[in-house]
User: Fold Phosphotransferase enzyme family protein from Nocardioides exalbidus.
Amino acid sequence: MTDDRTAALDWAGASLGSAVASADPLEGGMTSTMLALTHEDGRETVLRLMTHEPWRTHGAALTARERDAQHALAGSAVPAPRSIALDAGGAATGVAAHLMSRLPGLGRESLRDSRLEAMAEMLATIHAVAPDEPFRAYETWAWEAKWVVPAWTRHPDSWRRAFDLLAGPAPDHEPTFLHRDFSHRNLLWTDDTITGVVDWVETSTGPAWLDAGHAATNLVVAFGPDPATRFLELYADRAPEPVDPYWLVMDAVGFLPPPGRAPMFGDPGQLARLDDWLHQLVS
Assistant:
C-alpha cells in the first residue's frame, strides 16, 4: 500500500459528506501522521494516518481499537473524540486511517496544582468506565530485552533492582479500563478544564496504577519529580486500590530503548530525570 495523502483526504471528505478544504499537521504524533481537517461546510475533524513504523505494521488493530474505545466512551463523562469513519485496512487511504471529531482546547506545558488535580480526577473518571466488553489485557512496555543497565545512568544498582523486581510475579490487581497512554501530552485544555482526552489506540484492561505511573513518568521527563509526585498523591485519593510500586517501576523501565536503539530522549536532562526517578522508586 502507498501513503497517498490525496486519497486519504478524499476518503475523509466522502466519509463526512463534505470535502476537505484544508489540512494542517498536528504536533506530536509519534505513531501517526495527525491532520486537523476543515471541511467545506465548516466542520472540523482529525485524521489519523498510521504512517510510522513499527505502528504502521499494526495499524489495522490500533485504529480499530481506538474506534472501539471511542464508541465505549460515548455518553460517558470522558471528553473523548467521536469516531466518524475507519479504514483499518487502508483500502481507500493506503495506510490504516481513522477519522474522528475534533475537540476544543490546547495542550499545556504549564501544569500548576489545579491542572494536576484535574488530571487525577480525569484518570479516575476513565478508570470508572465499564465497557460492555473488556478490552485486551495490558501489555508491558518493559520487555525483558530492555533489561540492560543504561550507559548513561548514575544509579546502575537501582536499575538492577528494578529488573529483579520485574522478574518476579506481577501483583494481584483489579482489572480496570485503561487509557494505557494517559499523560499530559494526550490532554486538551481550556483554562484549567480538560476538554479532550485523545490517542486511544492502546486502550486496555489492567492495573489502574499502570496508567497513573505512565502519567507520572511523562511528567518527570518533561518537568521533573515534583509534579509527578504531586499527581500520584492526588490520584491516590481517587484510586480504586492502593499503589503498588511494581507498576510505577514497570512504566519507568518501559522508557528504556530496545537493544541496539538510541534512547527515547536525546536531551541529557530528560535522561537524568528518568534515571533519578527510577532510583527514587526502588530506594
